[in-house]
Amino acid sequence: MSAQPLAPQPTEPTVAGVRVRPFWPLVLYGLLVGSALLALWAQYSPTAPPSVSRSAPWAFLAFAVGFSVYRLALVMAKRYSPFKAFTQVLVASMFFMLLLLPNLGQPPSPEAPALSALLVDADPRVRALAAEVVGFRQARAEAPALVGLLSDSSDVVREAAHEALVRLNAGADLGRAPGPWAERFP
User: Fold this and answer.
1) pLDDT at position 83, please?
2) Which residues make Cβ contacts (< 8 Å) with residue 11, sequence separation at least 6?
3) Are 162 and 176 in contact (CB under 8 A)?
4) Are 58 and 48 in contact (CB under 8 A)?
5) H-helix segments, the chain
6) Element (H or E) spanning 19, and its range?
7) How confident is the model over 65-105, as pLDDT tens digits?
8) What is the C-alpha separation between 116 and 120, in angstroms, rounded?
9) I need a labelling partner for 118 at 20 to 30 A (CA). Which of 43, 56, 65, 128 fits?
10) 67 within 8 A of 92, measured Cβ to Cβ
């Protein structure tokens, strides 16, 4: 019996002499899941410390760098489409950039003026806009200040205050005089 030559085994992709499979995909997927959970928790949890919120994008960057190296190793070993790999790396890079943007869903910073301060601003446009915001936010604590704006010197401010009070009163209009509104919102 003659010994048959063994079929050549496909070589595994390597990076700096380290086999890329099967350990590295597990590490990469672990980084992906961990960084995604960290980013979601940091974004939507009011109890998340600021240090965690700041570190979430960098955890994703660790995944993106590892993922990029892994994909490039597969491309170099001719086991993966270069177009697909570079597209995936580009998408990961763009997602990282989005994570660096400030969180737009966070409450206003302490430096932002309170609505009550804006309702007494010298500029009638600011007062009118603040009154409108009070109505849309349903900020009932500001209703007495809106009642005071019904006597404002600006027609625009008086109209915005009236519309906001109607919103706060579930759509029921008590008129444009301050008296009934002062009784409703003492």
Assistant:
1) 93
2) 77
3) yes
4) no
5) 23-44, 50-76, 82-100, 115-118, 124-137, 143-149, 155-168, 178-184
6) strand 18-19
7) 888 988 898 899 888 899 999 998 998 888 888 877 755 55
8) 7
9) 43
10) yes
